[in-house]
Amino acid sequence: MNIQDNSRYHEVHARSLADPEAFWADAAREIDWIEPAKKIFDPSMGAYGRWFAGAVVNTCYNALDRHVAGGRADQVALIHDSPLTNTISKFTYAEMLKEVQTLAAVMADFGVAKGDCVILYMPLVPEAVFAMLACARIGAVHSVVFGGFAAKELATRIEDAKPKLIFSASCGIEPGRIVQYKPLLDEAINLSSVKPQACVILQRPQHLCELTAGRDHDWAALRRAALDAGKAAPCTPVLATDPLYILYTSGTTGIPKGVVRDNGGHLVALKWSMFNLYGVKPGEVWWCGSDIGWVVGHSYIVYGPLIHGATSIMYEGKPIGTPDAGAFWRVISEHKAVALFTAPTAFRAIRKEDPDGAFIRKYDLSKFRTLFLAGERADPPTVEWAVAQLKVPVIDHWWQTETGWCIAGNPVGLGMLPVKHGSPTVPMPGYQVDVVDEASKQVAPGTMGSIVIKLPMPPGCLPTLWQQDQRFREAYLTEFPGYYKTSDAGYKDEDGYVWVMGRTDDIINVAGHRLSTGGMEEILASHADVAECAVLGIKDAIKGEVPCGFLVLKAGVTRAPAEIEKEIVALVREKLGPVAAFKLAITVGRLPKTRSGKILRGTIKKIADGESWTMPATIEDPKVLDEIGDALKGRL
Ligand code: COA
Ligand code: AMP
Asked: Which domain of life does this protein belong to (predicted)?
């Protein structure tokens, strides 16, 4: 099929690759710079060059101050809609600026200055957004840790980022339970050899915690005192190439990778994306239903919409059960959102509860124009259901924590291209996406291979890993010279559409959350009774994938396997966190291996998923696969 369309996409994308500097210099006009770039792209800097070298800017200024000065002071910037606490609160751009200036002054009083790290371990509350922007305002580097991670994960991040200050809260709220943050925070600080100078704790009325004397400070009291004293921190000029934040993401080991985001490239890319990709105009209401602990939340709950001058909805709730499968439609109609960005898993959950879309028809969705999906492959049945029910375009788009914004999508603002269900459509400007074989040679259309991005990547993508330049090169730039390795496999079709079919490493996607099975195996292996283990992602109707652990017990262990399996499930929850959704541990006599000792994870996965499989030629003992099949019976 030859795609014929009236979209400006082809011209825009071709221009971005033919003359990237002219393209991004043009896009950069949408940003208020303190000093312009000396070089739009400097190939001599960093691992593959840096964007907007020498430019001076402030991200918070671009997200708040300039809108207040430019006529949006009274426009709502942030709507916090929380069915979990039964509250809705709204903040105008002027009110947000006041909060952020005040909090930034509080931070400065703690001695936090440009270049210092600050960790946020926070639920989805407006104060978390204020804290991110306050960091940006004074040039501090924030690192948000998702609230569903356990103390040990937080400890690893504290150890690596070495924060001067930690922002946290007394609790998060999940359906039917209060998640107490303070014990997790205390344990994490205890486990880490690095200690923050201070913690600022937001007391939520749903649960008050005790503050640790000498270390913890009450957020509200600090805010009140700073307001009474008329304190307000100005914006600190930073280089476009200075870090704005670190976001840790799963690597192939238990040690997460600290993805670095800079200020200048991030501003330019996100601003470009808000209209050209998402079709949203300044002043419109936009909703990204993610968590600030993930990259999607960083880019599209906080920075993208605010830099653009839109109104952003922050939703503390679930797609179902808070209170029902109509929750998303209630939010869209109540706040007149023009677009929603969420993960396919949320739609699978809604579809299961409300297959005929009865809830959808209860609400006025007349303002709603587009649904965007990302975080995992958007399976065609879910997309087709969403299209049929909502009667708006449903757009799958593909990106990673590392890139910070979309690699391949369907640009609504430039004019949509025809949709092919199962494909996130085409590369965005600045991205030359190729599919290559092991020798880095491009493969023919329709042929599966490794998906890579030709260097340099566009503005907004990671320049390096936090204080690990070498690990960055080895993990991303070495295997395919001249390219960034996405670790996703797939193909391009004859129309240039990208098809992303799965990871080439041990990363799995559980309800849109990125997790490392290698990291989970490290936890399983730490159990005293476990001799060997393998964790793999198996199909799940709602979450896409869930982890499943196979255990071989040490010789001489006489305890009941069921008891050990229960301990293992609890151990993963304790060490990694509930978000891993690790509920299935299965004891087996042996693990299937090749003659060279490699565990045949792919074959086990096929058996567990009920797919057809062939006996691997290199298998050491074919009988082990029958044993795996037997062990799985009645467990899935
Ligand atoms: N703090 C503490 N615990 C958390 C948490 C947080 N911020 N977020 C999730 N959890 C817990 C949940 O309570 C759940 O615990 P449980 O095992 O006691 O039930 C566990 O982690 C798994 O959470 P989740 O994967 O969210 O599953 P769920 O059953 O609660 O909800 C969905 C399923 C589909 C509704 C949910 O996964 C969802 O909304 N996903 C959207 C995906 C998303 O936002 N992705 C981000 C990238 S776009
Ligand atoms: P994260 O870094 O958490 O955003 O996860 C990135 C990974 O999620 C990618 O490398 C893909 O494996 C997967 N992913 C994200 N979006 C999509 C998509 N639209 N289609 C297929 N896979 C996706």
From this structure: Bacteria
